[in-house]
From TrEMBL:
Coiled coil: none annotated. This is Uncharacterized conserved protein, contains ferritin-like DUF455 domain. The lineage of its organism: Bacteria, Pseudomonadati, Pseudomonadota, Alphaproteobacteria, Rhodobacterales. Residues 46-72 are annotated as: Disordered.
C-alpha cells in the first residue's frame, strides 16, 4: 500500500464529485481489507483532514427551514426523500473517513480502523444506491437543495473523540434506525420496489455503524474509567442541539448496544 490510511481518508474528504468520492472510498476500503487479510504492515500515517470536506457546486445547501417540504405521498415527495437520504449518505462517507484522520493522538486497536473503513465503504454503497434511484426517476443528486449544517456535529466535535462517537453514530445514525422502517413502508405502499430494495440494504447495514459507535465509546470509557451512561448524557447535551425524539427503534438500538437508559433521559431534556 503506497498511501497511508489517513492519507487515503484525506484524499476522499478532498474529492468533491460525489461519484468519484464514493469510488475512491470503495477502492481504498478494498485495499485496506486486502492488506489486513494478507497480514501485511499497515501504515496509519498522519494527514490533515480539511475543516469541511470538498463538495460539488450542487446541491445548493440551505438552512433546514428553507428546504421545501414535499408531500411524501407524491412521486415528487418520494424523489425529495431519496435526495435527502443521498445527502445524508454522502455526509456519512465523509464523517467516517474524518474520524479515521482526525484523531491521530488517540490510540486505538486496529479494529477501530477496520470498523470505520467498513462503515465508510457501506455509506459509499448507500450513496450510490440512492443516486441510482434518483437517476432511474429522471432526477439526480444535486437536482434539489439539501440541508446545510450537516457538518456541524463534525466541526463541534473535532477535538473530542468521545463527543464525536456520542453524537454521530450513537445519536444521528441511531436516529436513522428509528425512521427508516417508516420510509420503507412508504415506498412499499407506492409499489416502488427498487427503492424498497435499496432502503432495505441501507437499513440492514446501519445497525453495525451504531454498534461501532457504541463499541468504541465504551472502549474509551473503560480506558478512562468513566461511567458510560452519564458521560454519554453529558456529551450529547453539550454537542447535540436538539431533542431525542421517540418513538425509538428499541430492538435495533439494543442490537447495536445502545441501552434505553442512554436515550430516554435525553427526551424533553430542555422542557421546564
Ligand atoms: Fe448509510
Ligand atoms: Fe451509517
Amino acid at each position: 500500500m503506497s498511501m497511508s490510511l489517513r492519507e487515503m481518508a484525506v484524499a476522499v474528504l478532498n474529492t468533491a464529485d460525489p461519484r468519484q468520492k464514493t469510488a475512491l472510498s470503495r477502492r481504498f476500503a478494498e485495499e485496506w481489507r486486502t492488506t489486513r487479510k494478507d497480514g501485511r504492515e499497515i501504515e496509519l500515517g498522519i494527514a490533515q483532514p480539511p475543516d469541511m470536506p470538498a463538495r460539488p457546486s450542487k446541491p445548493e445547501l440551505l438552512s433546514p427551514r428553507d428546504v421545501a417540504q414535499r408531500k411524501p405521498g407524491t412521486p415528487e415527495g418520494r424523489i425529495a426523500m431519496l435526495h435527502a437520504i443521498a445527502h445524508i449518505e454522502l455526509n456519512a462517507v465523509d464523517l467516517h473517513w474524518d474520524i479515521i484522520a482526525r484523531f491521530p493522538d488517540v490510540d486505538f486497536p486496529m479494529g477501530f480502523y477496520d470498523d470505520w473503513v467498513q462503515a465508510a465503504d457501506d455509506e459509499s454503497k448507500h450513496f450510490n444506491l440512492m443516486a441510482d434511484c434518483l437517476e432511474a426517476r429522471e432526477s439526480h443528486y444535486g437536482a434539489l437543495p439539501a440541508h446545510a449544517g450537516m457538518w456541524m456535529s463534525a466541526s463541534e466535535t473535532a477535538k473530542d473523540i468521545m463527543g464525536r462517537l456520542a453524537v454521530v453514530p450513537m445519536v444521528l445514525e441511531a436516529r436513522g434506525l428509528d425512521v427508516t422502517p417508516g420510509m420503507i413502508k412508504l415506498f412499499k405502499q407506492a409499489k416502488d420496489h427498487a427503492a424498497v430494495d435499496a432502503l432495505d440494504v441501507i437499513y440492514s447495514e446501519e445497525v453495525a455503524h451504531v454498534a461501532y459507535g457504541s463499541r468504541w465509546f465504551h472502549f474509551l470509557c473503560g480506558r478512562e474509567n468513566l461511567d458510560p451512561t452519564p458521560t454519554f448524557h453529558m456529551l450529547v447535551r453539550r454537542y447535540f442541539h436538539g431533542q431525542l425524539k421517540p418513538p425509538f427503534n428499541e430492538e435495533k438500538r439494543a442490537e447495536a448496544g445502545i441501552a434505553p437508559d442512554f436515550y430516554w433521559p435525553l427526551v424533553d431534556q430542555q422542557k421546564p
